[in-house]
Design a protein that fits this description.
mainly alpha
Length: 360
Amino acid sequence: MPFSLSPEQKQSAFWLALWLACGLLLYALGPILTPFIAAAILAYALNGAVDRLERTRLGKFHLPRSLAVVVVILAFLASVTALVLIVVPVLRTELPLLQAQIPDALARIDTILSPRLAQLGIHIKLDGSSLRTILTQQIMTSSDEIWTTVLASARVGGSALLGWVATAILIPVVLFYLLLDWHRLLLQLENAVPRRWVRQPVGMAQEVNALLAQYLRGQLLVMLVLALYYSAALALAGFEVALPVGILTGLLVFIPYLGYGLGLVLALTAAILQFSDWSGVIAVAVIYGAGQVIEGFFLTPRLVGERIGLNPLAVIFALLAFGQLFGFVGVLLALPASAVLMVAFRHLKRHYLRSSFYNA
């Protein structure tokens, strides 16, 4: 008897194939989806503020949603601009001072390392003049290759710069329209799910929303507290770049361990360049050691909470895995995707423990 599909099965196969084709198309369009995905993530984070502002009434005056969206976006852009205006001028002032201290730092390093390298048969001086000589020789011997590389990098960098400018312009525009129609878009997505399956996806979406909302709110508070702590502690220790290094360390905390490690490297570099003895390195060790204790034992458990289930190792793996698979878009999607996968795993585990395969 020949195998045949019922009309309902044919219709299901058709719609599943169409959804799969749409998914493959979105995957192929990944490089141009960056501003839309970034705007969607920002819209998810800012929608709560828009809703609260929209519900605010001043007497008989009711704030329209469009105006609430404009106010929230302007406040967000003002916060980002204020952060840039705080960090960039300090860097422009302090970096030349640190650059002037590089020869002394190289001389100290040369005093420590040169005898040990000489014992191994390596005779090299780590001072400014020696490094300039080595670089000059390398440039003279391979100038043609360097110019070729520089020109190729300039072409690639120019197109990349144009892409970043276009993305920076598009994100606020897309963000405005997403926030304006946020609830209608969510309703349309819910209505697009087949009615036989709608209950479970909506329930999972609510779990993911609760998980991400708790995580993002807590993580923002942790970042703010740690940025204030590192900036104040480094300033009290006498670091000239306390403000930018402290702020960057606090903001990078959302990448567990990797962000902390990068901030630690920046602080150690500043300590080596600025201080003539080991006091700067010891101060960095004390400040960052205490900061790790404060974050791990007080801030994260109280403000983020271990009950959300986003293990730091899982976050690191998600960032690396999605970045490897989808590039920068994957990094943007890593946190929400890991939350979705974790909720899906919980449901799968629940079904597995109830199945006859497990209980037989």
